[in-house]
Amino acid sequence: MSNPTPIEAAAKSYKNCAELNKDYKGGVAKDANVKNKGGKTKYKPFVSAELYKANITKDRDKDGIACER
């Protein structure tokens, strides 16, 4: 069995940001146009509406990026 593509894994819900950031260092953005409200980040977020929706509770500042860092 091959590794899942990002699309197949898109709806994975992570239990916390530490888990999500292992796969997506910069967090997950709902679309490419969102702007981070929290100031400077080290990494660009991965853009995926599906993945963002699955982890929307981890977007504490409601800026459209879950677990940004």
Give the strand order, joined by hyphens, for the main sheet: 2-1-3
Main sheet?
A: 3 strands, mixed
How far apart the termini lie comes to 32 Å
Give the strand tally: 3
Structural class from helices and strands?
alpha+beta
User: Strand fraction band?
Assistant: 5-15%
Shape: globular
Order of helices and strands: HEEHE
Percent of residues in helices: 10-25%
* Overall pLDDT level: 89
DSSP helical segment count: 2
Radius of gyration (CA) equals 11 Å
Unreliable segments of 5+ consecutive residues? none
Question: What does this protein structure show overall?
Answer:
There is one protein chain. The protein has 69 residues and is α+β, with helices and mostly antiparallel strands. Helices cover 19% and strands 9% of the residues. The protein contains 2 helices and 3 strands, in the order H-E-E-H-E. It has helices at 17-23, 49-54; strands at residues 28-29, 46-47, 65-66. Strands 2-1-3 form a 3-stranded mixed β-sheet. The longest helix has 7 residues, at 17-23. The N and C termini lie far apart (32 Å). The model has no long low-confidence stretch (mean pLDDT 89).
